Each structure stands twice: as structure tokens, then as C-alpha cells.
Amino acid sequence: MTKLKDIYPLYLNNKAEQPNADLEVTDKFTGKVAFRCAQADAKTIDAGIQGAVEAAEPMARMASYERQAVLQHCVNRFRERSEELAYALCVEAGKPIKDSEGEVSRLIDTFRIAAEESVRMTGEVQPLDISPRARGYQGIWKRVPIGPCSFISPFNFPLNLAAHKIAPALAVGCPFVMKPASRTPLGAIIMGEILAETDLPTGAFSILPAHREGADLFTEDDRLKLLSFTGSPAVGWDLKAKAGKKKVVLELGGNAAVIIDRDADLDDALERVIFGAFYQSGQSCIGVQRILIHADIYDRFRDMLVAKTMTLIAGDPKDRNVFIGPMISEGEASRLDSWIQEATTKGATLLCGGTRDGAMLEATLLENVDQNTKLNIEEAFGPVAFLIKFNEFEEALRIVNDSKFGLQAGIFTRDLFKTLDAWDRLDVGGVVINDVPSYRVDNMPYGGVKDSGLGREGIRFAMEDMTEIRNLVIRRRT
């Protein structure tokens, strides 16, 4: 049976260090301390950044096949340690074990994609002789690593969202310092343990759990050339304001909508909407929060949703039959519980769920939610969704766009022209047809607009952010 160690280190300049065991990490279902790990202070973070600066040149000089070998080593070791990784995720994040196993498979995919892309980073030959004055001139450009990077990853996908920063950095040759979420640091620490088995230049990576209050260097230090942050909008935009001259990539979540049009396959849509709204207790930035249903099928699909939701099993995420585990903390569950109460006070109808016990919140559906409630305006980030009736497809598109967020949207329709219209008009980073907005493949461009962030993840697209174009102009005497 998989067991966790009592104490874990941090990783400073490729090496495990145990300066303390100050960070207590709980089992999110029991609330008991599951393990402790080292916590970085400002001096340690400074040393990690300096190490990354010194590693920038040797990292940039690594051959493509050498970078690929590092990434492939990670793929092999993640496969060998997949059971351990899934169990650690289940404990520290409270993620149901089946979802945890799914995230490990995505971790492996992400590093595998990066290994493939690491030998495909091409440039372009560009003719410059566009006028008589440029006769005899030719241009060639290539991409070069941007330099030391700072990564701050969230609690909800502590393996795969860390991977979407680490893997492309290794693929292009950028050293980095990473601050994993304090509630869920273990996945990143295990990645550090596996990276330490490779021959990366000293300083290539540091995995440094730290309190937010003591971690300003991750954002403000001018030696860092890129900041990639995934988390809440309030924190993300504040970090951008403090980041100085460095490039900033932000993935900040949303209140994603799915449209169920009158021609949808309702049985298929039911399974996917239930998944999108409630997988990993709704703690996903592209989790389904708003369910728009055509008036002709509204009553029928509402009843189907309620009946299916009431069958979902909640409890200990280590139980393979459990679909709904705890939220990340009792405080977060209480916060969302208060949003449900606000909505019902303002006239919403509670269709099912709505009961909280500590960090456990029942899968909840509502209808008639007032537009001015937090549940409509903000990101719920928990197992709650609400239903909206619409009459015309144009109306549904307007409702989806009536949000300060714009990450992804889903549409169940068989109409090609509606698909193309939605792709043109929805103000989101991605439109998913005949599935929920919660769907993501790890090689696709992923990111949002408006308050949902800046830039795109997806390995090839993150590699572009982590590189700069360097141009070469050649004059041939004629």
C-alpha cells in the first residue's frame, strides 16, 4: 500500500535541502496533518533565483536531444511512480482517486509532448528584398530561451498545472524557480526529486514552497525574465502590477458556461455536463458553472440533471466509488455555501444539494439565480451550477458573453453554422462543440481573455512565451 513520508525537502539549485519542516500539509478529507515539508525563506528564494541566473547560459547551450532526454526521463519515472503520485494527490488535494489517476496520466502526456516539441523548435528564412534598397538582403530568425523564469502554481491541479510550466521551460532551455501552492506542494516536490536524477546544469531548477507573504521575489525580482502564474484574478492582476519589466502569463479562471441547444443528444449532454460541473468537486477554472438550456427541452433536461446529480457519491476521496470529495478547505466550502444562501435569499430555486458538512459540500443545482449574485458574477470554484432558460441561440451567446471572464465555453449542437457563429462571436479563449468547457487536451492552446488572463498554455504555445525571436540579417554583395 502506498504511504507518504513524514517529512519532505525543498529543492534548491537541483539539490534536496531540509532547512526546516515548517509547512504542515493536511489530508483534505480528515483534516489531519498528512506530512510536513521544508519552507523557503527570502534568503533561500534569492539563492534559487541567482542559481537560475547562473544556469541560463549552460541551459541555453544544451543540445535539443539533451533536453529531450531529461523530459523523457521524467516521463519514464512518472510512469514508474504513478501510483505514488496519484495517492499523494488524493491526500493533499482531496481529489477523488480516479480523478487523481487521470491527472497523473495528463502529467505524463504533458512531459511526453514537451519531449517531442523540444526537438521541433524551428525558425524561418525570410526574404527581405521587398524593395530596391533591400536587394541582396536575407533574413533568418530563430527562437532563443528567454532566461530565468518564475512559476507559481495552484492547488487544484498541483501536478499538471505545474507540469505546464516546468515541461515547456525544460523543452526550450529556461532555468526556473517554482512556488507550488502551500496546500498542495508534494506533486512539485516529487517532480523536483525526479529532475534531481538528471544531469541538468546546477541552478536549472528550484522547487520552493513558501508563504505568499514572504515570496515577493518570485514576482518582483528583475533577474527573472518571465512570470507564469495560475490562480485567482485578484492575486494574478496584483502580481502583474508588481512584476516590472518581465513578461507575464496569467491563467485566472472563469465561470464557464455550456449551451444545450434544442437539437442536442440529451443523454450524451447529461453525462458530460455532470462531469463538467462536479468532477473534482467543481474545483476547476473551466468547471461548468452556468448551464444554458433551450426552452423547448428545458424541463426535461433539468429533471435529468437533478436526478443524475442526486446519485453522485460523496465521501472519502480514497474510495474508488466516490465522485465528490472535499473542497480544499472548510473555509472555501463555507464561502461557497454562503453564495448559495445569498442566491436563494434573492429568489433562486434550490433544485438539489445545498448542504455542507465541514469541507464537504453537496453537489448543488439551482435555477432562477439573480444576475447580481456572486454565484452569477464570480467564479464558484466548487460543486455548484445553475440553470438558465433561453429561447434563441443569439440570446444564449449574449448570456455567455455577459461575464467578466472568458476562458472556455461549451455548446451541444448539431448545427455547423451555429458552431461557426459561436466561434466567431464568443469572447472566450476556446469554444468546445458537443462537450463541456471543462475539456482540455494538453497540446492545445489554452487560456482566456478579459479577467481570465493573458497568454496561452499548451506546450508549443508556452514554449513561444518562454522564448524570444533573435533575427539574423545577411547582406550579399551584388
Brief account:
It is built from 15 helices and 25 strands. With 478 residues, it is α/β, with parallel strands linked by helices.
Describe the structure.
The protein has 15 helices and 25 strands. By secondary structure, it is of the alpha/beta class. It has two domains: 7-252 and 453-471, Aldehyde Dehydrogenase, Chain A, domain 1, CATH 3.40.605; 257-442, Aldehyde Dehydrogenase, Chain A, domain 2 (3-Layer(aba) Sandwich), CATH 3.40.309. Strands 15-18-19-14-13-21-22 form a seven-stranded mixed beta sheet, sandwiched between helices. α2 runs antiparallel to α4, α4 packs parallel to α5 (160-172) and α9 packs across α10 (298-309). It starts with 6 loop residues before the first strand and ends with a strand.
CATH superfamily of the largest domain: Aldehyde Dehydrogenase, Chain A, domain 1
Q: And the CATH topology of the largest domain? A: Aldehyde Dehydrogenase, Chain A, domain 1
Q: Label the structural class.
A: alpha/beta
What is the CATH C-level name of the largest domain? Answer: Alpha Beta
Radius of gyration: 23 Å
How many separate domains? 2
- The CA-CA distance between the termini, in Å, is 74 Å
What's the helix count? Answer: 15
pLDDT < 50 stretches: none
Helix content: 25-40%
Going by CATH, the architecture of the largest domain would be 3-Layer(aba) Sandwich
Number of strands: 25
